[in-house]
Specification:
Shape: globular
Largest sheet: 5 strands, mixed
Radius of gyration: 27 Å
Order of helices and strands: HHHHEHHHHHHHHHHHHHHHHEEEEEHHE
Oligomer: single chain
Number of helices: 22
Helix content: 55-70%
Subcellular location: Endoplasmic reticulum membrane
Enzyme class: transferase
Organism: Glossina brevipalpis
Pathway: Protein modification; protein glycosylation
Protein name: Mannosyltransferase
Number of domains: 3
């Protein structure tokens, strides 16, 4: 049963907005039925007369049901699973490669998985590895099919979270804000990228936002458990999302017993299996979440070795992924203050929680991460759905303020047809939804058009596997040089006798290496790994032993990064695809695709898959 305050709010939303175009949720129906039985026939007649007089606004009747929203979420997330490129090399080498090792016994290992550091948890990898392993054993698909199966699984999991969150937002913030949030989520470029990424930050988004949704429905035990999953199995820093929940339970509600009991239950349920699994893989007692916190927070070098960015990085990145919705989300606190001053209290909804605490996870996260020198796009993944929520709240508040100002200028009789604030302000919501949708689609199309070439290129090796030249007994070396970070992963290689190899380039940081052969490969420490981002010659492969080479031709040739495609005596071009040259392209038109204009302001080079004319087996 939903809580009393929520029940009243649902009834109000039903009566005023007639919102759900399909069958309302079961608990809403049950609530309305009980209220009807209690009221009696006479009260029902009075109610009917009242509703005939105070008709809902005609232009706000369409609000998707939870089931309809879920179907749209699934459709969009599956599109992401198929079409989105891998935007972060950390996703490839720290997650897809260990997953490939779990399933096939072969893959690249980074220094974070070396036992002397043990920063990453194999438990998280096994969550995807076990279904992938079962799929491989039952049907023996090609590796690329397992890749897309895992991605579709991630997309479906994200859709489940969004369904739960949509239901909670409609309950806590109202169906109009829920409708806005739904549209913003569906057409967000940020959600298109993050929803199917095999990253702990995406996993933290699933369960962190599910925890908030449970909290808004006053399911406190479930919210604590979800925060624990996001923090321990996902990303330790996701604990920030649970801090407002803890404050609400301990300070506002004094639910000490519930909080500490479920914290202990959650920790034991998750940590014990996790420590057992990771200790088994690393060959020593290991608690990976603690190790990664110690490295990132309490070491002198830490993540800053991998690059630093100014505070404005997240401002720009937020606009790229959420366009005007991001800007609106930053204005939410100010708009809520104006709303409190300008809009009469009687027009406000009754909420389970004050806004300053329900929205605190978003601003707390920004406050912490915006001042960290090392910044990555994926660090904001956990709060992506909250960007849409805060943007939706800002739009709703602006509509209320606009209506309030209009009522001061033009007399509008309360309780009559056309007196609802949405009757006079829906053009604002429609305009924002239209702009957000067009910019979101423009960004998604630009990403696919500009950066998808490496995934399509490596898949071309599958055609070679089906040719007469292919020999199953031969080991084929697929080499990458300066474009090592664009390689999409071993799942795109057609068979186990293909190996990715690294050529020396202008990059002088640490690269991954293959897991050692044997059953205890994950327990083996290697001298060539370090946590200082220092290169080691062990990772480099002899150029003359390459059978295939992946190289982006930008016409900038150096001794370490030659234009391999011009070495016609050594290489033939198997396939070439266009790939954006960022430094030669306009920053706006490379970020957003504008028909008839983008081509005039962007420059593309050839991303080549080359085949050796010598083809010497190694």
């Amino acid at each position: 049963m939903s809580p009393p305050a929520a029940r009243q709010r649902y009834i109000a939303n039903k009566n005023e907005n007639n919102s759900l175009i399909k069958k309302p949720k079961k608990f809403i129906n049950a609530t309305l039925k009980r209220e009807h039985e209690k009221s009696g026939a006479s009260a029902a007649k009075i109610n009917n007369r009242k509703h005939q007089k105070e008709r809902p606004p005609e232009n706000v009747n369409v609000v998707p049901s939870v089931h309809t929203a879920f179907k749209t979420f699934v459709s969009v997330r599956l599109c992401s699973a198929i079409c989105a490129d891998i935007s972060d090399c950390d996703e490839i080498y720290n997650y897809w490669e260990p997953l490939h090792y779990i399933i096939y016994g072969q893959g690249l290992q980074t220094w974070e998985y070396s036992p002397q550091y043990a920063l990453r948890s194999y438990t998280y990898i096994l969550l995807q590895g076990v279904p992938g392993w079962i799929y491989e054993r039952l049907f023996h698909p090609t590796p690329i099919l397992i890749f897309y199966m895992v991605r579709c699984m991630l997309g479906f999991g994200c859709a489940l979270m969004e369904r739960f969150m949509y239901k909670s937002i409609c309950q806590e913030f109202g169906v109009h804000i829920g409708r806005l949030w739904l549209i913003f989520q569906l057409f967000s470029a940020g959600m298109f990228i993050s929803s199917t990424a095999l990253l702990p930050s995406s996993f933290a988004m699933y369960f962190g936002c599910a925890a908030l949704a449970a909290w808004w429905q006053q399911m406190y035990a479930l919210s604590v458990f979800f925060v624990a999953i996001a923090t321990l199995l996902g990303w330790p820093f996701a604990v920030l999302m649970g801090l407002p929940i803890a404050i609400d339970m301990l300070w506002r509600k004094h639910m000490f017993r519930t909080f500490f009991m479920w914290s202990a239950i959650s920790a034991a349920t998750i940590c014990i299996p996790m420590v057992v699994i990771d200790s088994s893989y690393f060959g020593k007692l290991t608690f990976a979440p603690l190790n990664i916190v110690m490295y990132n927070v309490f070491t002198n070098h830490g993540p800053n070795l991998y690059g630093t960015e100014p505070w404005s990085y997240y401002i720009v990145n937020g606009f790229l992924n959420f366009n005007v919705i991001w800007l609106l989300s930053l204005l939410t606190p100010m708009m809520l203050i104006i709303d409190y001053i300008v809009v009469p209290a009687k027009t406000k909804s009754t909420l389970n929680f004050p806004r300053y605490i329900t929205l605190a996870p978003f601003y707390l996260w920004l406050l912490v991460f915006i001042f960290q020198p090392h910044k990555e796009e994926r660090f904001l993944f956990p709060i992506y759905p909250l960007i849409s929520l805060c943007g939706a709240i800002t739009v709703d508040v602006y509509q209320r303020i606009f209506y309030r100002v209009k009522t001061l200028m033009v007399q509008i009789k309360a309780g009559t047809v056309g007196s609802h604030y949405l009757d006079h302000t829906m053009f604002i919501a429609i305009l924002v939804m239209l702009i957000g949708t067009l910019l979101g689609l423009s960004r998604v199309f630009a990403l696919y058009r500009n950066y998808h070439a490496p995934m399509d290129l490596v898949m071309e090796l599958n055609h070679f596997k089906n040719s007469n030249e292919y020999r199953s007994s031969r080991l084929y070396n697929v080499c990458v040089g300066k474009d090592w970070y664009r390689y999409p992963g071993s799942f795109f290689l057609p068979a186990r006798n293909f190996r990715i190899r690294f050529l020396k380039s202008e990059f002088h940081g640490i690269l991954p290496a293959y897991y050692a052969d044997g059953e205890n490969a994950t327990r083996t420490s290697h001298s060539y790994f370090n946590d200082l981002n220092q290169e080691n010659d062990y990772m480099y492969f002899p150029y003359e032993n390459c059978h295939f080479l992946i190289d982006f031709d930008t016409d900038k040739c150096t001794s370490l990064e030659p234009c391999y495609s011009k070495r016609s005596k050594d290489w033939s071009v198997m396939k070439s695809l266009p790939f954006l040259i960022q430094e030669k392209s306009n920053s706006f038109f490379r970020a957003f695709y504008i028909p008839f204009l983008t081509d005039s302001y962007t420059v593309y080079g050839n991303f080549n898959l080359l085949k050796s004319k010598k083809m010497k087996p190694s």
